[in-house]
Amino acid sequence: MVFPDTSFLCGLYVPQSTSARAIDFMRLQPTALEVSSLLLYEFRQSVQFQVFRQTRDRTRGYPPAVAQAALAALQSDLKAGALHLAAVDWADVHQRAERLSLQYTRREGHRAMDILHVATALHLGATEFLTFDANQKELAKAEGLVVRV
Prior knowledge:
With about 150 residues, this protein is mainly alpha-helical. The protein is about 65% helix and about 10% strand.
């Protein structure tokens, strides 16, 4: 089972330097990617925040049309079954996240959302983790997940 993080979804749905790799991965992926409601929330929030950033500084973020296209493509993939919303026991995820935080954060500086995504992948029994985030990649690898893309 394969679980992506927000950086993968951003590469998949918003044109950027990682997009070709994300799109190529999805073309070859034979099964749906498992996603959590938290992952979807973080992606959607990030898209909205990027629009906000551009309203304050045209050199940052991206315009509403890019955001609308990204959110529509995400919704389309959910409806088509390319992404599957997994049932998650959040109490178990939080317990796993607490362990990961205690074990790794002081030494390696992991952020809360990164820890929660890795904990969710572990909770769901994922064997592979998709990320373009170097720090999160190290956390996932340390927990035995095969990191791709």
